[in-house]
Design a protein that fits this description.
Helix content is 16%, strand content 41%. The strands form two sheets. The protein has a five-stranded antiparallel sheet with strand order 4-3-2-1-5, with no helix packed on it. The protein has a two-stranded antiparallel ribbon with strand order 6-7. The protein is globular, with a radius of gyration of 17 Å. A hairpin with a 2-residue loop joins strand 1 and strand 2. The chain is an alpha+beta fold.
């Protein structure tokens, strides 16, 4: 019985993928493979990260976007083999860990402040100038 726990941990470790570091409030572009009948294509879903549930292999994140005036939310498993890639479109500055209050906001009130985080990206931009 005690031998199965390390085996499960090893299998989970092999399934983990490299993902870019993103936080709640960031705008991300998720390239997700979907099947339509016999065909398979990549669909891009761009929106704000409302929630990031960290749980090893079972980590998920919720992305919200407004499409034709209708709010659309989608929950993605971080380490899913169906995700081609996750791109970071913009950084956002928020003070909460869950942004569910955005569901009730419309128009300009639903915007987030741009982040002014100092890090590797800011340093790279300064050096390129």
């Amino acid at each position: 019985m005690s031998n199965t726990v390390p085996q499960i941990a090893a299998i989970e470790q092999a399934q983990l993928r490299e993902v870019p570091p993103f936080r709640v409030g960031d705008t991300v572009r998720v390239h997700f493979r979907i099947r339509e009948g016999e065909k398979e294509r990549v669909q891009v879903f761009e929106g704000v990260v409302l929630r990031h549930h960290r749980g090893g292999l079972r980590s998920t994140f919720t992305v919200r976007k407004v499409s034709y005036g209708v709010g659309v939310e989608r929950i993605f498993p971080v380490h899913s083999p169906r995700i081609e890639k996750i791109e970071l479109a913009a950084r956002g500055h928020v003070r909460q860990a869950r942004l569910y209050y955005l569901r009730d906001l419309r128009g300009k009130k639903a915007r987030l402040r741009a982040s002014r985080r100092h890090g590797a990206e800011a340093t790279l931009r300064q050096h390129k100038s």
